[in-house]
């Protein structure tokens, strides 16, 4: 036994071909399906419509407005978070200011009562008067400190309010951009959808004029071949895989009956013959 063929499993040898015997052609056929040449050519029209539908779906998915809206919505969310933070800070400062002002008012009222007692001096010993004067001085210092707190809180509240106002404007501006992008996206989508509806109706008409078994084969091949189920044989080249048929393949196609559905050996797509096939 001679060496095994390098492209076959170990221990196997290629079949010897007797002289004068022609092996079957490699071109893939669909022996159980026959269709008039005109029906096969209509597959090219159907294929063109399917390609257009695929292009429209890609165009719809790839509209630049999609990415623009995502980016703008990210900015909008960030500005809204900053706005909420500024509004929260302003609200907190408002409560803190109200509390500090209440503390100032309480100290002021107490100091006023002590001053009235000091001014009257009725029934008070010199020691009590001295103690009252010291308390009034302490209250005055306490009031001053609290008033400083009020001023500091008011400044923080004012700054927070200014930031909130600025961020409110930014949110409105970005929201306007989002609304504009959404409107443009919706308009573009509506235009694409209208064309899809038109092409889909046209496809239904063309598909309805092609035999059911041929359509079934076309759809099956198209699903397995990247959306292209039928390709024209043009100048001895399959327009599906863009490969030129060799002489053996061409001879097999020449021998096939006109109503026989043949397929490309390389890409398995339905091979549609026309007057420009170069046969």
TrEMBL record:
Task: Fetch the Gene3D superfamilies from UniProt.
Answer: 1.10.287.1490
Disordered as annotated region, ranges = 96-126
Q: Name the residue ranges with Basic and acidic residues bias.
A: 96-117
Q: Which residues form the C4-type zinc ribbon domain?
A: 237-271
Domain named CT398-like coiled coil hairpin: residues: 46-226
Top-rank taxon, per record: Bacteria
Matches recorded under PANTHER family: PHOSPHOLIPASE C-BETA-2-RELATED (PTHR39082), SCAVENGER RECEPTOR CLASS A MEMBER 3 (PTHR39082:SF1)
Quote the protein name from its UniProt record.
Uncharacterized protein
Q: What is the lineage of its organism?
A: Bacteria, Bacillati, Actinomycetota, Actinomycetes, Kitasatosporales
């Amino acid at each position: 036994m001679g060496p095994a063929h390098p492209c076959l499993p170990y221990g196997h040898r290629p079949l010897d071909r007797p002289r004068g015997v022609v092996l079957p052609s490699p071109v893939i056929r669909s022996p159980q399906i026959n269709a008039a040449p005109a029906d096969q050519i209509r597959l090219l029209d159907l294929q063109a419509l399917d390609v257009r539908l695929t292009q429209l779906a890609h165009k719809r998915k790839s509209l630049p407005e999609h990415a623009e809206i995502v980016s703008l919505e990210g900015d909008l969310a960030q500005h809204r978070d900053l706005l909420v933070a500024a509004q929260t800070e302003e609200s907190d400062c408002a409560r803190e200011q109200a509390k500090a002002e209440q503390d100032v008012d309480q100290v002021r009222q107490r100091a006023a009562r002590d001053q009235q007692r000091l001014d009257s001096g009725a029934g008070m010993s010199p020691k009590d008067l001295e103690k009252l004067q010291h308390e009034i001085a302490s209250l005055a210092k306490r009031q001053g400190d609290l008033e400083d707190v009020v001023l500091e809180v008011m400044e923080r509240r004012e700054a927070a309010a200014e930031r909130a106002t600025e961020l409110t404007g930014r949110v409105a501006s970005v929201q306007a951009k989002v609304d504009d992008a959404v409107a443009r996206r919706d308009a573009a989508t509506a235009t694409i959808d209208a064309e899809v509806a038109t092409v889909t109706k046209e496809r239904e008409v063309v598909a309805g004029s092609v035999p059911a078994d041929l359509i079934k084969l076309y759809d099956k091949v198209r699903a397995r071949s990247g959306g292209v189920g039928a390709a024209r044989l043009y100048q001895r080249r399959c327009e599906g895989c863009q490969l030129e048929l060799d002489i053996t393949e061409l001879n097999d196609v020449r021998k096939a009956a006109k109503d026989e559905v043949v397929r490309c050996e390389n890409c398995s797509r339905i091979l549609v013959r026309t007057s420009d096939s170069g046969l």
